[in-house]
Structure formats: C-alpha cells, structure tokens
C-alpha cells in the first residue's frame, strides 16, 4: 500500500487535466475539419492539421467495452477491487479509457448510457475522470480528507495512528517542511570530525593548501559530517505517527552529497515524506531529508531515511 499513482500532465494534455479540476470535460476539436480528437495531441487525427482548440463537451457517452479486474493491476489499487476498466465513447465520437464508478457489477452493460463523474483525489483539487450510468445521482466524488477526524498533539502535529492506512498513505506528498534554523559549519567543527573519523584529507583540514589547490578555494566539510549534523537541525514535520510498539531506524535508501559545504557556511535542513509502504517488517516510512547551504538551491546532502513502525 502506498500512494496511488497519478497522471502527469504534459504541456499538451495540461488543459484537459485543468478542465477536470474545474469540473468540466474539455477535449480538442480541429478548426479545419471540425473533427474531435482524444487523447490530447499536437495534430488532428482526421486531417493532420495543427489547429486544435479545446472545447467543453457534455460528457454524454456510451460504454464501448469494459473488463473487471479481480487482481490489482498495481498494489496501490488493491482497495479498489474489482476495478471496472472501461473504454467509453463520447457523443463526439472519441473513445476514452477510464474506470466506472458507483455501479454494481450486474448493472454494467456494453452500450449503456454514461455520464462523467469528477473524482477529487487530493487536497489540492486534482481530479480524475470516471463514468457512471446516466441516471445515477453521482456527479462528483469529493476528496475524503483522511486527516480530518484525527487529533493534534500539543505541538499542533496531526496524530496519525499506524493502523489508519488511508491517513498513513496520505502522508506521502511532495511538500517539504519549513526550513530548520541554520547552524554554522566552521573549521573547528570540521577538525573535530577529522579527529573523530580519522579522515584528515587536506581538502577538509588544511586551509592554506585548500586556498591554493582546492577547486572550492577553501576547505570543505566532510559529507558524512554534514549528514550527521541533521540531528542538530529540527525541522517540524506536520504529523506524529502514533500507536506503534517499536520504531526502528533502518538506515538509508539513498545518500548523496551533491554540493560541497565550504568551511564557515551556514546550513539548514528540510524534509518530506517520500513514500509510505506496508511491508512484512512493518509500516515503512521513507523520509527524504535535504541539507542545503543557506541560499543554495542545490542540496549538499540528500538522505532517504527509512523508518519502520510496528
Ligand atoms: Zn482536422
């Protein structure tokens, strides 16, 4: 179980997805031959003209064909079984791959009249296009915010029970936390780490030689030093996982040092939940921690931390 895959809009298809978000179905029509085109493209499929414009359509459709999936096509879709994967034909003649919703298996018939259902799938209003029978009182499936009924702790973090799969799964998103406070990585700290680790390479510990010979013009911090300094930088996660017996730091799925940290730099950190997966070892949360020199766009450390809750 993890976050469901979402379509990625391209510059060509973006108007289609935008229209869905606005509760409208818009498809392309050729200005030369008036033919309708779907899926979104650069050229008319009837006459090859590149003069296509976006037109709102009613979504009146008939069921061209369908199949019921008894085995999830992806693990993330396990809670949607059986899925009614369908090809529907719009009144305008184009066919659309979709899923049927709000219908019992026994109600589905090839040739039946259908209408669109706008399924809001996240808090930012992203919408997928489903279809249901014309006579059903179903036009919109609202976003079901799995955090809505949950409590907050004294720090204001949403308390997400490990057993609440919908909420656990919804933790993964592309939003970073705010930046932590900044800390300074000075030569004394770098020297202390050199003593501790035994890594006395001049690029870290010899400012005079580094001024002459280093491509950075100064000494730089060890990547592993910057990585462990993460513990000194508190970024505020918007949630707290609760209701587990044990939490295990399982290490890192990916550790990269893309940019140097010159001695004397200020660094700060932020994080985002990259993935949440149910595994035989327990609930696995992958937290991507990024550490940057303040003001630098390129991170100095990318660390995908893996945490197990059970
Ligand atoms: Zn055309």
How would you portray this structure in words?
The chain is mainly beta and 310 residues long. It has two domains: 14-141, no CATH class; 158-309, Hotdog Thioesterase (Thiol Ester Dehydrase, Chain A, Roll), CATH 3.10.129.10. Helices cover 14% and strands 36% of the residues. It contains six helices and 16 strands. The chain has helices at 14-21, 165-170, 187-197, 202-205, 207-213, 223-228; strands at 25-30, 36-37, 52-57, 61-69, 83-90, 95-100, 113-120, 127-133, 140-141, 158-161, 183-185, 239-242, 247-256, 265-279, 282-293, 301-309. The strands form four sheets. A five-stranded mixed β-barrel has the order 4-5-6-8-7. It has a five-stranded antiparallel beta sheet with strand order 11-14-15-16-13. The chain has a three-stranded antiparallel beta sheet with strand order 2-1-3, covered by helices on one side. The chain is elongated and about 80 Å long. It starts with 13 loop residues before the first helix and ends with a strand. The site of zinc ion (ZN) has 8 residues, from loops. Residues 17-52 form the ChsH2 rubredoxin-like zinc ribbon domain. This is OB-fold domain-containing protein. InterPro entries: ChsH2_C, ChsH2_Znr, HotDog_dom_sf, MaoC-like_dom, NA-bd_OB-fold, NodN-like, Thioester_dehydratase-like. Pfam families: MaoC_dehydratas, OB_ChsH2_C, zf-ChsH2. Residues 54-119 form the ChsH2 C-terminal OB-fold domain.
Number of domains: 2
Which compounds are bound in this model? zinc ion
**Into which percent range does the helicity of residues fall?**
10-25%
The arrangement of helices and strands along the chain is HEEEEEEEEEEHEHHHHEEEEE
Coarse shape: elongated
Into which percentage range does the β-strand content fall? 35-45%
CATH class of the largest domain: Alpha Beta
CATH topology heading of the largest domain? Thiol Ester Dehydrase, Chain A
Beta strand count = 16
Poorly predicted tracts of residues: none
Q: What is the architecture of the largest domain at the second tier of CATH?
A: Roll
Mean pLDDT: 94
Distance between the termini: 15 Å
Structural class: mainly beta
| Number of helices, where a helix is a run of at least 4 consecutive DSSP H or I residues | 6
